């Protein structure tokens, strides 16, 4: 491609809301443009880079035995109703009705569609296992889009779905996909860490995210130095140390406590440690149900764990008015004597302490020596605590905090979808059995952004060869026609050799600008034809990001790179 | 791929609604499955065939200098409002609102999006011309989907958009695209005819369809034997022969006419030729406006021409009650004295006759010697007549009728979008000027169906190599392990040589079934490894569709094909 003909040239300025490096560079280098918030155009350079990534993913998926298919973008909504995802996906699901009155979901993932497809065939154990996958545009009605390609409302996802006779067979595939994904990201130059994560509205019992460490990422995770544990903050477990659990239970006592409303106020007033205080957080679910989360005072409630434990889909904090309507008082909420319609959810850390203190549901009145079971019952008890750096893992290793971009994820689905949709195969014994399933996703746009986040400097992008739109950025430098004739010859030679080359053929732009554009666009090699290079017997070649250049004979360039 | 592992195997039966060959064969051979009406899954074989076609189209588009980009699927609805297409596309447009209240169109074509994109850049005459194109899923809320991949509600379209400084430059591109498209279809084995057509809701002044002749197609067109004229029935022009236009006008006369309501009844009652009768068809537009189309009695009203002449988007026939409410009478409608709120649209064929006859807006009363201008005025006059086989072209050649599948189309858009969306470039003289535009579409799914319509026999599909999912269908035949070992070796050899091969490795299926499946799936070559072939020194190779087979040495197979 000749730069003079390229649609979507470089630009020096960026819109005000462009903050992170990948967004800025992909914008300035002419790879993407925003259409509406969270919905982007790919320009020719961006399209080539994305196609390169798609090719890598496709090669590795095929190599792994997965078979490429394609489902419609519009999913019959009745399928989503069968699995209850019209509710569980909540606001993120976009739906549409056609003029015959049929309703459809704009797919965010395609579990229902794939199960529906598989159900169209009478399969037996001999057809298993198999994995089908697709590249298709996905939709999520995100409240806030951000960071260019990092959090989109419309994006290309590679989503694969595997079908198995049983769990053991699935587990082999799951482990294989960990390797396949690692290889894919590796080929694209990304080092990823595999962390346990929350399955959100996908269903199933466990799943893992592939995260590339990055300051601009939104995925926070915890891991141990020995690499034996890594889990997303949403699900990370930690050791809740015993405090005074062996103490004798003392009598419950109500005391006047004219104090402020915060935990710190309680500590200050009673002169007791924070960990002995009960932290009470009152939530309201999407169904209007009150949920009181209680936890040891030095821990924090993890809302994802709380949702998973309670089955709530959305949670919000109760207002002061709502708290008072329940006969309690902001800052003085207590599980002891709370209105019966409130579901009390206790973190198991409350078993590590005795004789706790906290509010009494009355203003400026606190309770001392509160003990679980004796003074209050937990409707549900479990782990709702947020893990943090410095805590210990369940095996006693120190947890470290990481942050990064989630580029892929893999899910055990088990029988979640096959049972809800009655999808069965005929097993060896002639009996019908439910498929055991898994699913595997890669966000292509986000992976592209991750590559740019990792590979750039102040001047621009530094593409790894696997994702570079062009391998060589060829520049003709100078005024003389001869230089342009030589560059043109080299351009055609490289093209005939199958080398992807972007040729800056502009005659009205100075050397500085041409070099700056080459750096910004970030092809792995820059090749300059100038009077100087011709005198030296060829073309001056430099790797992007390197300072050294070398003169290479015109004919040898293809071999050189 | 081993057949035993292939997802989506062949099947002998078809659903009842499967009628046309491409639908039946693509279903039976395991290429596609219906999700909802007009929305299909592509199975692995179908996906490979479609990818092949995409590759051919992409190669030719790139070769033609077009640049691949991608727009979001959801188009901000405000853009469509600017060009009035929210109205003109009418029911076929699907729209959706996100949870922030923004409205979007599910794109059927992307003119607005592309103009919006181009407007994001400050371009000058030096950047022109350029063409940007994309492959993307398109949506049309068709009342009725039909024929498998022939008329879909969701489909893959290659849509290109060119931007020019002026009409002369556009015309060069338009002619070039005729060649590019012809070459694309040619590479896919399709002979297409280029016919003038209606631009529907695309806008612009002229356009052409690429049609592959086929009995199952929905595009009817007329052409002359010398190939100098070809036009879709919607727009085809013809010579309206002079009848008695030179006769003297006789006095208008009302006569009792106790006759039936049809044209034939009028002919019979008055014993006058059909062509002297005025045919009156009363329509109601989408805005509730009455439109009376009148035409010479031996011609038929073409509703597309009528829509284009009147600007109506939808037309329906008026009911008998509506006709009476207007003070007229079914079967006796007349432009003479018709209610003033009715817009009279006259076909110019009414100039070829004098002293016509027809209804009088009163039951059983006819008028004789009706003459245009003297007795009635046409609000709009033009060509609203349907061309038919046997009529003469404007240059006096006999028109022949053709029928086929529209696989592509190209449109002059002119300033239609650029003016409505205020899209300008800076010309040589430093002044801002509107872009002159064209657009170019190929329906990929429909093209795939067209290939199958053209290339099949009673046994199955006969893929041209450019679109075949696999080049070779390799069959191991017999019971002995040795045969399967040899076949396996050949399978691996071919794969390592880069030959795409589908290997039927099943051991529990007889020869007849394997041959039938090979014929159904339709790879260009069938290669059989059997005891017989091994004795003869190799593999038995047969072209799909041919009766002759040949023994080829295992090692020579790649060269042979």
What does this structure look like?
The structure is a homodimer of 561-residue chains. The first copy, chain A, is of the alpha+beta class and 561 residues long. Chain A has 3 domains: 3-237 and 400-453, BirA Bifunctional Protein, domain 2; 253-382, Alpha-Beta Complex (YbaK protein); 470-560, Rossmann fold (3-Layer(aba) Sandwich). Chain A is 25% helix and 29% strand. In chain A, a hairpin with a 4-residue loop joins β14 (278-285) and β15. In chain A, α1 packs across α11. The longest helix of chain A is centred in the N-terminal third of the chain and has 21 residues, at 167-187. The interface between A and B is large, with 58 and 58 residues.
List keywords for this structure.
homodimer, 561 residues, alpha+beta, BirA Bifunctional Protein, domain 2, YbaK protein, Rossmann fold, 3 domains, nine-stranded mixed beta sheet, 15 helices
């Amino acid at each position: 491609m000749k730069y003079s003909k390229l649609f979507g040239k470089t630009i020096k300025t960026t819109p005000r809301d462009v903050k992170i490096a990948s967004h800025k560079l992909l914008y300035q280098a002419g790879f993407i443009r925003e259409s509406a918030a969270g919905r982007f155009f790919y320009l020719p350079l961006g399209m080539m880079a994305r196609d390169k990534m798609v090719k890598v993913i496709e090669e590795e998926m095929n190599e792994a035995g997965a078979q490429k298919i394609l489902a419609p973008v519009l999913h019959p909504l009745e399928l989503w109703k069968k699995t209850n995802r019209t509710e569980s996906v909540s606001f993120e699901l976009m739906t549409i009705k056609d003029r015959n009155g049929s309703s459809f979901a704009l797919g965010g993932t395609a579990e229902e569609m794939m199960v529906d497809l598989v159900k169209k065939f009478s399969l037996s154990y001999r057809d298993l296992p198999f994995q089908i996958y697709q590249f298709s545009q996905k939709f999520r009605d995100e409240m806030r889009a951000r960071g260019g390609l990092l959090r989109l409302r419309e994006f290309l996802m590679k989503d694969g779905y595997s079908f198995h006779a049983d769990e053991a067979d699935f587990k082999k595939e799951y482990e294989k996909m960990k390797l396949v994904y690692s290889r894919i990201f590796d080929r694209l130059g990304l080092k990823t860490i595999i962390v346990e994560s929350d399955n959100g509205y996908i269903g199933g019992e466990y799943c893992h995210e592939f995260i590339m460490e990055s300051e601009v990422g939104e995925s926070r995770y915890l891991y141990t130095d020995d690499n034996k544990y890594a889990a997303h903050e949403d699900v990370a477990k930690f050791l809740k140390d015993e405090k005074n659990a062996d103490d004798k239970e003392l009598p419950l006592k109500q005391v006047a406590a004219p104090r402020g409303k915060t935990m710190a106020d309680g500590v200050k007033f009673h002169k007791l440690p924070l960990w002995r205080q009960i932290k009470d957080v009152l939530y309201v679910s999407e169904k209007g149900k009150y949920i009181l989360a209680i936890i040891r005072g030095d821990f924090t409630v993890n809302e994802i764990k709380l949702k998973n434990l309670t089955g709530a889909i959305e949670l919000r904090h109760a207002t002061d008015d709502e708290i008072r309507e329940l006969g309690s008082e902001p800052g003085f909420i207590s599980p002891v004597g709370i209105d019966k319609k409130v579901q009390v959810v206790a973190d198991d850390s409350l078993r590590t302490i005795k004789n706790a203190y906290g509010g009494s549901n009355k203003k400026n009145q606190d309770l001392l020596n509160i003990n679980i079971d004796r003074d209050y019952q937990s409707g549900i008890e479990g782990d709702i605590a947020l893990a943090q750096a410095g805590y210990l893992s369940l095996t006693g290793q120190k947890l470290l905090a990481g942050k990064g971009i989630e580029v892929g994820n893999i899910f055990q689905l088990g029988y979640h979808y096959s049972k809800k949709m009655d999808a069965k195969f005929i097993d060896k014994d002639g009996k019908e059995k439910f498929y055991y399933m898994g699913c595997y996703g890669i966000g292509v746009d986000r992976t592209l952004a991750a590559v740019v986040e990792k590979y750039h400097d102040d001047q621009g992008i530094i593409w790894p060869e696997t994702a570079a739109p062009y391998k060589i950025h060829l520049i003709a430098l100078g005024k003389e026609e001869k230089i342009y004739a030589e560059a043109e010859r080299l351009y055609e030679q490289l093209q005939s050799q199958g080398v992807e080359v972007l040729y800056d053929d502009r005659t009205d732009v100075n050397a500085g600008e041409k070099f700056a554009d080459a750096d910004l666009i970030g092809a792995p090699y820059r090749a300059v034809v100038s009077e100087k290079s011709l005198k030296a017997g060829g073309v001056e070649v430099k790797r992007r990001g390197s300072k050294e250049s070398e003169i290479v004979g015109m004919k040898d360039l293809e071999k050189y790179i």
